[in-house]
Amino acid sequence: MLSLSSLTALVQVVLIDITLAGDNAIVVGLAVRKLETKQRRIAVFIGVAAAALIRLGLALIATQLLGIIGLRFAGGLLLLWVCWKMYRELQTSEDHDGDSNPTSGGLRSAITRIIIADLSMSLDNVLAVAGAAGEHIWVLVSGLAISILLMAFAATMIARLLERFRWIAWIGLLVVFGVAVELVYKGGGEVLGQFS
């Protein structure tokens, strides 16, 4: 039912989505920046579809996820691995500046990175959205749909920017690295808290 509390929850969810979708969009943009236009669209579509399924699955078990100690830590480690792969790709593209052809495994590699990064980064987003939505299931579903649309739109724009201005890719990598370090730090604190 439409009520003041559900509308308030929806506004909160939209604000959370706008705030948190940027990190995911940067990862997607970095992952697809070297692909041809057609492959870029495919990678963004598959990556965003996978993100939708991941977030829906996480949303359904959001409250149970809060009790799993070490989940954020593991997600941070996965994201650090994604950062390392992106760093190596950026280094290689700087070394071969004139070579604009993507590698043969470019599409599969981009999709894999998008899925792993989204799995690592979605937990905070889903938990924040689930917390704001409360008992309003339609608000939760709407919020997840909005975050996926924002990520797809922003990722396409970011990929175009990265294609024109390569230095932005390094800034994007730093942003993603910062998120990974934050996840490792918070998750590590949770794990260490269990032993004290």
Please indicate the percent range of residues in DSSP E strands (runs of 2 or more).
under 5%
Q: Give the termini separation.
A: 45 Å
Domain count: the total is 1
Largest sheet: none
Shape call: globular
Q: Number of helical runs?
A: 7
Along the chain, the helix and strand elements come as HHHHHHH
Number of strands: 0
Round the Cα radius of gyration to an integer and report it.
Answer: 17 Å
Overall helicity: over 70%
Provide the residue-averaged pLDDT. Answer: 76
Low-confidence stretches: 98-104
| Quaternary | single chain
Structural class by sheet pairing and helices = mainly alpha
Structural features, described:
There is one protein chain. By secondary structure, the chain is mainly alpha-helical. It has one domain. It is globular.
